[in-house]
Amino acid sequence: MKDFLQPDTLDSNSTSISNQPDFKPTEISSVIDGIPKDMGLPRPSHPTLVGPERVLSRTDTSFTTETARRSKRPFQIVLYDVRLSQAEPGHTEHLWAPKIWRIRFILNFKRLPYQTVWLEPQDVERTLRQIGAPPSSQRSDGRPVYTLPVIMDRARNVHQPVILANTNTIAEYLESTYPARPVFPEGARAVQTLFVHFIQEVFSKPLLPIMVPLSHQQLPERTRDHLREGGPLVGPQREQAWQAVREQFDFLAMIMDKNIGDGEGDGVVTMGREVSYADFAICSVLIWIERMAPHDGWSRVREWNGGRWRKLYERCSHYMDEL
Fold it and tell me: Angle 208-213-217 (CA atoms, 0-180°, nearest 5)?
């Protein structure tokens, strides 16, 4: 479970080009769906697609979702994600991992058609090795670590797709490769990257003792046995933990309020008046709370700081399609 919450490194080494002689990118289903059943790899659900209403009068790529439907060509971008045990296609409440949501937000915001391949946590490393994905980091002993999100992009070369791991690496790749509808405001990429690092490394830390056990409970039984997380906090310990979370939200609200004073902010988003990558990082955490702790957690957070976080959630909700 903690693998999905590990901090992203700030380098750009988590990229590979598929060069396995027996690997055909156009047959991605053979890696996940068409493998022998005794290997135990999960079968992907039917992909949910970006609705044509998201591809408005302006198209950011020549290959739109509607084009994909008509031509039945394979989707150029594949996102690998993890889903909870009770999930079914189109059931949004079961998509929860914050780092993967950051990439999903970018894909939706840029109106890039993509397909999701669903994995269970214990199958992630085996599957990513099989498709030729790079490790997202290394353990202290040098062994590679394979975590989600991972994307495969066949847009430039269907026979040699770009395969990327590490949330920050993927975000920068998508911004550079598909510059229309930028998620990094001009001249702010460094500041945005630092802000997102703060969200991951400092802001989210007090949430872990609360949210990780709750997320663990929603996973399939064989996954829970594999991860062996502790039980949820209860009583005074739980309230103390939520108080520590509140302190982080209060601090972030105080910082973001500085935008109001200079007349350039709207009191909701991180920079100016439009959502950006930094807002998607915050909202990914809000989604995690809303879906794993709707009554005990989201009912608190949504009202903190004058309802700021509810308003941000609503601003980002336009980009919460699940493809």
Answer: 145
φ, ψ (nearest 5 deg) of residue 136: -85, -20
What domain range is 289 assigned to?
Answer: 73-319
CA distance 211 to 215: 6
128 belongs to a structural domain: yes
Going residue by residue through the chain (323 aa), what tens digit of pLDDT does each one get?
A: 545 445 555 544 455 554 433 333 322 222 222 222 233 333 333 333 333 223 322 233 333 444 444 445 567 999 999 876 554 444 444 688 899 999 999 999 999 999 999 988 888 999 999 999 999 888 999 999 999 999 999 988 888 999 999 999 999 999 999 999 999 999 999 999 999 999 999 999 999 999 988 888 777 666 555 555 566 666 789 899 999 999 999 999 999 998 887 666 688 999 988 999 999 999 999 999 999 999 989 999 999 999 999 999 999 999 998 76
How far apart, in whole angstroms, are the C-alpha atoms of residue 41 and residue 78?
17
**Is 313:283 a contact under the CB 8 Å cutoff?**
yes
Contact assessment for residue 302 and residue 313, using Cβ atoms and an 8 Å cutoff: yes
Per DSSP, 178 falls in state S
CATH of the domain at 188: 3.40.30.10
**Domain annotation covers residue 309:** yes
Domain membership of residue 49 (yes or no) is no
Give the integer Cα–Cα distance in Å for 68 and 293: 37
